[in-house]
Write a structure and sequence with these properties.
It comes from Flagellimonas aequoris. InterPro entries: C5-MTase, C5_DNA_meth_AS, C5_MeTfrase, SAM-dependent_MTases_sf. There is one protein chain. With 426 residues, the chain is α/β, with parallel strands linked by helices. It folds into three domains: 3-82, no CATH class; 98-276 and 403-421, Vaccinia Virus protein VP39 (Rossmann fold), CATH 3.40.50; 288-371, no CATH class. Helix content is 35%, strand content 12%. The protein is built from 14 helices and twelve strands. The chain has helices at 3-6, 9-18, 28-37, 48-62, 70-82, 109-116, 129-139, 150-153, 188-199, 219-231, 299-314, 373-379, 392-401, 405-421; strands at residues 98-103, 119-124, 162-165, 203-209, 234-235, 240-243, 251-252, 254-262, 323-324, 330-331, 344-346, 368-370. Strands 1, 2, 3, 4, 5, 6 and 8 form a seven-stranded mixed sheet that branches. A three-stranded mixed sheet has the order 9-11-12, with no helix packed on it. Helix 2 crosses helix 5, helix 4 (48-62) packs across helix 5 (70-82) and helix 6 crosses helix 14 (405-421).
């Protein structure tokens, strides 16, 4: 088959990129997009073989009667590089100052922050398929999948500067043990630690829920610090809890940040960023236009929430819905439980109360509605150009699971300043 004679390379590229039926390799499209984004920086060698095979499989699927060689597939791949259109909202810096990898990437909160500081992302992984869809829409790159699998780890390149990870909080089996590397086996932190051990990045930047401080009576955090400091050889200052509301977004969201530097760099001090003095309230991120009636609660549902709150109040509990005033600060956006109901707002601009979804009862006339996914995005510090390509239910989950971008950026800035001073040190 001669691609140039039988079919245009542009058409071939379209078929390869848009072929969603290839389940032969979970890593195929991830390798392809990572190769495209790294063809000029030497990292592409980690992705080329799988990228070529992905193109080959796509062409074999589209043209089953043709003999598709690896040479033909590579020819198409090289053309795609030449014709690669970077029309995604968040493009990498033209002259990167450092390289980083994005583990448990979610929808790219870490990436937005790191790229804005001059970073080049050279590897990303995320297991949730809908989150990967959002990530691709905004960065033009498909994350690799399950980081616990060796077939995923093998694609991680050498020579990156910072490892970023918002890993889940899990208990370790450390009864009667020293609380070290081996005691974290079977948890996702073990996989993070294993990657640090193999690749030895200059710096690490981990984010987790506030509860990690007291998780399993403090044993979990103690083990993490033991592994990073003693087993892996990193200078790790005491972790700190930062609140998103102190960094320019109207959301009360506390998260623990853990920072570390490879000991041979000689970095032995670190100060977490100080809160900004910028006072932001919900009104600053509120939708400018009238939102759909679908976000307004029905009277039936509102009454259910009122009764639910009264039951808990009678028991001395503080659970239940909450309405955030325009001059107030939102509660933490979370993907489960009462996440949306604890961040209701007043909005009296609606004039047409005709339901557009199946609800029980009429739409309330008190102007009480849920926040929109875009408002949640703003609460997390995502710019308005951030594309939300998924349904509302998925969007709430994705933003609820994400990091608060401004707090990440402020901390990352302190990390980058230190490692750039040591850029020539190994």
């Amino acid at each position: 088959m001669n691609l140039k004679e039988n079919i245009s390379l542009e058409e071939v590229c379209g078929k390869v990129f848009n072929n969603r039926l290839l389940d032969v390799s979970e890593s195929g499209k991830a390798a392809l997009t990572h190769y495209m984004h790294n063809h000029q920086n030497g990292v592409s060698k980690f992705y080329k073989k799988e990228a070529v095979q992905h193109v080959k499989r796509a062409l074999e699927y589209e043209y089953p009667d043709e003999n598709i060689s690896s040479q033909i597939a590579e020819e198409a791949l090289q053309y795609m590089i030449f014709d690669f259109k970077k029309d995604v909202p968040f493009q990498e810096p033209k002259n990167p100052k450092f390289k980083f990898i994005d583990l448990f990437a979610g929808i790219g909160g870490f990436r937005i922050a790191m790229q804005s500081l001059g970073g080049k992302c050279v590897f990303t992984s995320e297991w949730d398929e809908k989150a990967k869809k959002t990530y691709e829409a905004n960065f033009g790159e498909v994350p690799f999948g399950d980081i616990t699998k060796e077939e995923t780890k093998k694609f991680i390149p050498d020579g990156f500067d910072v490892l970023c990870a918002g890993f889940p909080c899990q208990a370790f089996s450390i009864a009667g043990k020293r609380g070290g590397f081996e005691d974290t086996r079977g948890t996702l932190f073990f996989d993070v630690a294993e990657i640090i051990k193999r690749k030895k990045p200059k710096a690490i930047f981990l984010e987790n829920v506030k509860g990690l401080f007291n998780h399993d009576k403090g044993k979990t955090l103690k083990t993490i610090l033991n592994v990073l400091r003693k087993d892996l050889g990193y200078f790790v200052p005491e972790p700190k809890i930062l609140n998103a509301k102190d960094f320019g977004v109207p959301q009360n969201r506390e998260r623990i940040f853990i920072v570390g530097f490879r000991e041979d760099l000689g970095i032995n001090n670190f100060e977490y960023p100080k809160p900004t003095k910028k006072n932001v309230v919900f009104e600053d991120i509120k939708e400018e236009s009238v939102v759909s009636v679908k976000y307004y609660l029905s009277n039936t549902y509102l009454n259910t929430l009122i009764k639910h709150k009264k039951r808990h109040e009678s028991k001395g509990n503080g659970f239940g819905y909450e309405i955030i005033p325009d001059d107030g600060t939102a509660n933490a956006v979370v993907c489960g439980g009462m996440g949306r109901e604890r961040n209701l707002v007043y909005d009296h601009r609606l004039e047409d109360f005709t339901p557009v979804t199946h609800i029980k009862g009429e739409v309330n006339r008190q102007g009480i509605r849920k926040m929109t996914p875009r408002e949640w995005a703003r609460l997390q510090g995502f710019p308005d150009k951030f594309i939300i390509p998924v349904a509302d239910a998925s969007a709430y989950k994705q933003f609820g699971n994400s990091v608060a971008v401004p707090a990440i950026k402020a901390t990352a800035n302190e990390i980058i300043k230190r490692i750039l001073k040591n850029v020539d040190r190994k």
